[in-house]
């Protein structure tokens, strides 16, 4: 997979053609930037909430941490996966009804 040129070894995709790869990475980061920001902000909201409860004592802190973890794992994950499932299901239904109507 590696090409030899004199003393240096170069990868075929990163050699002189790296401008295309760099441009693609820039485009992907530009599109994914808002998603990354929202994810970080949602996580920081949960962390800040637990930090505020930490001022009340160790028992409320542990209760808030468990509640936040439970809500994050069961509730938010369920909602996101269900929305993805419903989107895929509605696409499938709309695609298959074209053949039967």
From TrEMBL:
Pfam families: MatE
Residues spanning the membrane: 29-53, 59-80
Source organism: Thlaspi arvense
Name the record gives this protein: Uncharacterized protein
Keyword hit for GTP-binding: no
An example Gene Ontology molecular-function term: xenobiotic transmembrane transporter activity
Keywords tagged on the record: Membrane, Transmembrane, Transmembrane helix
Family listed: Belongs to the multi antimicrobial extrusion (MATE) (TC 2.A.66.1) family.
Entry's Gene Ontology cellular component terms: membrane
Highest rank taxon of the organism: Eukaryota
Claim: Protein transport is one of the keywords in the record: no
